[in-house]
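Hi, here's the filled form for the chain we discussed.

Project: internal
Contact: R.S.
Residues: 195
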Amino acid sequence: MAGASHDSGYYFAEQFSFQNIEDVGYCGIQNRPNSNGESIVHAVFSSFQNGTTTSDANCHDGADGGPGVSCAVEINGDYRDTYNLAIENVPGSTTWTGTVINTATGAQTRVGSWTLPSGAGGIESSYSGFVEYYRGTQPCSKLPKTEATFYNPVSKTPGAGNGVVGEPYEYGDCVGKVDFSTTQVPDGYEIKVGF
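And the returned structure, exactly as it came back:
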């Protein structure tokens, strides 16, 4: 999120679904105001599935006002660095752990973990991501400028293969009004939006 302001407001996220259950999970990062002169990266790992449980200190019940569990952690990190969000299953269970990884420094920070209802399977092969300005509605012409790059998802699971990020597109009330653009880069897309 090299082009993001050091302020709150944007969520750069990927959604993923699981076999045998109805609702999705999210993982992503958000910009935050600096603290003590340091850039802050807010990482999020959420399940929207009713019946998800957690005992993790970084997590709480509920996701965006509905059922599920949300986990979050704040780390010091340069916005020019690339951050990977690793989602890993605890073998033999329906428990999943989210970790944010700064690929420039190698630093890994656990975001949190939660357990899906019995019978939940693995992560499905395709879903979607988004760039969301979550600080409420405002005139389209006042949307703060931001920039981020989404890279293709990868998997260490034997036989699972790697994913592909499709070309991003606009949706909602401000289509065509917020200077939205995308540029294909190796293994992903750069997104720019706002003023």
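Let me know if anything looks off before we file it.
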